[in-house]
Amino acid sequence: MRAINALSLWAGVMFGQTSGNKGYFVQEIKDGLYWVSDGAYNTMFLVTIDGVIAVDALPTLGEKQLAAIREVTDKPIQAGNSA
Description:
The protein is of the alpha+beta class.
């Protein structure tokens, strides 16, 4: 079932079904780990007790990733890495 959900999620993003006019899609994968996509690039972030860890913070997703984080939490961004 997880494979079907993952495939469905991937297909929706790959075929441009981002959420409304936001220009990105954000979904919780599991336990505070979120996936963000704009249909072309993907990244993720983890919400912890102390704040947010941004992973693979691509310049092309920068503002969208920040908006996705703020949509989920108001905790501070504690760490991040970029490609």
